[in-house]
Amino acid sequence: MFGWGKTPRCRSSLQNAICGNISSYCTLRGNFHKPILKREFWNHRHLRRPSPFQHFKQEQAMGTDVNVQPGHGKAGRQPTRQFLDTLTGHDDPGMFGRMFPTLEPLAVDDGPLRELADAMKDPAPGDAAGNNANIPAGFTYLGQFVDHDITLDLTSFGDKEADPMAVQNFRTPALDLDCVYGLGPDGSRHLYARNSASDNGKTPGPKLLIGKTVNVDSITGDHRNDLPRSPEGFALIGDHRNDENLLVAQTHLAMLKFHNKVCDQLAASGKPPGEVFEEARQIVTWHYQWMVLHDFVERITEKGLVAKILEQGRRFYRFKKIPYMPVEFSAAVYRLGHSMVRQVYSHNRIFTPGPGGIPATLDLLFRFTGLSGGIIGDLAPKPIQPPLPLPVLSSNWIIDWRRFYQVLPANPPGVALNPSRKIDPFVVPQLHTLPGDGGSLPFRNLKRGVLLGLPSGQDVAKAMRIKNPLTPEEIAKGSDGAVAKKHGLHQHTPLWYYILKEAEQRGGGERLGPVGATLLAEVFVGLVHGDRQSYLWLKGKTWKPTLPSQVPGEFTMADLLRFVGDISPIDGISTV
Q: What DSSP element (H or E) covers 187?
């Protein structure tokens, strides 16, 4: 669900002194003063930056003042939070970094990785026993939307293999909806509607463009339920990846409509036109941030975990001033969504399993997007006859949100709420054969972890001092575990696979286990807290959402959809 650029710089003189650098900066992954291209680097532990506690012990031995607090630890002293902050900073925006830079990378050959990936194929993707009724399927694609909001790696898989140290994040590591707003009305004019209230429509904004569907199958009406598109069918949005499949595309559309609805309310309240955009953006972004932390993150981790971290602080995801994107998160922990994907969905009353319906297969959902080569893509007749492929979405593919989120207390008969699949090591067969020679997604994930030098799950759990880490016997359970054991991976486990196995064994497949949950929640809290425009930075943890919601003071994705008022357009249902 997720380049590496040039060497990041740490301009802290203290950190340079600790690292022993001669040059004016050091890499975040070692003491070299130039980019590291050879994997031999990983084998030299003495070249790595000492951990804060290692340095603390060195300073104590030398009698150096390290700003300690009495009464803690065996020696009765431990570093203060301020001291730790000076050691764990990643000053460079846009760069990936590491939460556990001193841990040894896990090296595994392609053969065992491929065999393990093959064992991760879901043998019964339609079996209800593999469903996770606690997480509606819409959250799978909200998770993908969020991923696109915080990461953008333009480096090809082959380039990563040649230079795994050169990955760069081209997204701001923040929940700031830059994938929706781009550079704003002035910098990304192609995303915005003309402002009819200003300069006779010569200026853009404050509202975002919305696309119109083409009516088919006797569906009539003015349905503005597509992304805005070019004449060739490419989506005019802040991140082209949000037109990768129909469900993330419709999620992006909901965010566009969310912003526009807030703009309408502000204008109706008498807000001066020149102030509408900025205030709407802040309202939308803050509610989105709160929703991600409390509706999304806590749904896949545990209720109250975000509040606990806000109260007690982050222990593992730490930065000095500017958040970075941890590779342990982007290449392992946050790839949990791949196991949540279903093979077939009930999309609306037309595309649904059962008598008289057409199953909305994962294949169809990928083809009815602009990135497929046309909205119909490979389903277009051969040879292609104009006007096919369609340049816009057809109206029979407009989503029925009741089937993806609990927007109603209970759905009416015949309207099924899609559950996600369990968070476990199994991935639907479709993702083992990606189109365009993409190969197996599980293998690519496992291989990426090796290329990026990720440590084993056991080493991460030990570094986190997890009280009940997975045992080798637990990892060896099941047909997938037998393959892991065959290659010794039940004792030294790839981090991504460990996270999924931990969710299966500790969370019953319904939520992440202790390693995955802690790291995922800490990163998201840190990304919001490190954004100086976020509600956490400007208002603090006591701020509560103000828009209409089922529970006052809270805000969920279901609340967002009810607020937008576009529940199932082809059924004439706008509100509930």
A: helix 184-187
Distance CA 510, CA 423 (A): 6
Question: Which amino acid is residue 16, in one-letter code?
Answer: N
| More reliable by pLDDT, 405 or 222 | 405
Which residues, at least 6 apart from 319, have a Cβ–Cβ distance to it below 8 Å? 88, 89, 90, 526, 530
Backbone angles phi, psi at 135, to 5 degrees: -130, 100
- Residues in a beta bridge with 369: 374
Closest of 150, 144, 146 to residue 94, by C-alpha = 150
Q: Which residues pair with 68 in a beta bridge?
A: 79
pLDDT at 376: 62
Rounded distance between C-alpha atoms, residue 460 and residue 463, angstroms: 5
Summarised one tens digit per residue, pLDDT across range 505-526 is 999 999 999 999 999 999 999 9
E strands, 311-411, are 325-326, 344-345, 360-361
pLDDT tens for each residue of 406-443:
999 999 999 999 999 999 999 999 999 987 667 899 99
What pLDDT does 23 receive?
A: 29
CA–CA dist 402, 397 (Å, integer): 14
What angle (nearest 5°) sits at the alpha carbon of residue 365, between those of residues 152 and 355? Answer: 155
Range in 156-170, 208-222, 292-306, 515-529 with the lowest mean pLDDT: 156-170
Please answer whether residues 84 and 314 qualify as being in contact, where contact means their C-beta atoms are separated by less than 8 angstroms.
no
Joined together, the tokens standing for residue 520 give: 């995922």
Q: What is the pTM of this model?
A: 0.82
Query: Which residue shows structure tokens 């569907």?
Result: 213
- The percentage of the chain sitting over the pLDDT mark of 70, rounded to a whole number, equals 75
Which structure tokens are listed for 125? 């993707």
* Tokens at 83, concatenated: 């001291």
Q: The tokens 């569906």 sit on which residue?
A: 219
Question: What pLDDT, on the 0 to 100 scale, is given for residue 282?
Answer: 98
List 208's β-bridge partners, or say none.
192
